[in-house]
Amino acid sequence: MIDESMQDINALMNQVRIRPHFTGGNADGILLYGIKQTSMFKNMGIQNGDIIIGVDGKAINSVDDAISLYDRLKNSSEMKMQIRRRGQIKEMIYNVEQ
Description:
By secondary structure, this protein is α+β, with helices and mostly antiparallel strands. The chain has helices at residues 2-7, 9-13, 40-43, 63-74; strands spanning 17-23, 26-33, 51-55, 58-59, 78-85, 88-95. It is 28% helix and 39% strand. The mean pLDDT is 83.
């Protein structure tokens, strides 16, 4: 699913709206909203308004940070994504199949 999505970034970006999130003038994650019902993001359990703050403990402060993680995912069997949902920090664990 990730491979297919990353092959066509334009199609992927049509599934969701993404923008940097700031607290006190500092970037502290990426906000996801406008998630389409049939999107990869919805299938992953991500909800409108979720803020991705980290992956495998590495801070995500920009869309470029999130995209750069793709290479790491190709060699991983598990990914832990930290999100802020309605003010609560939550960790989502995904198994990555090669």
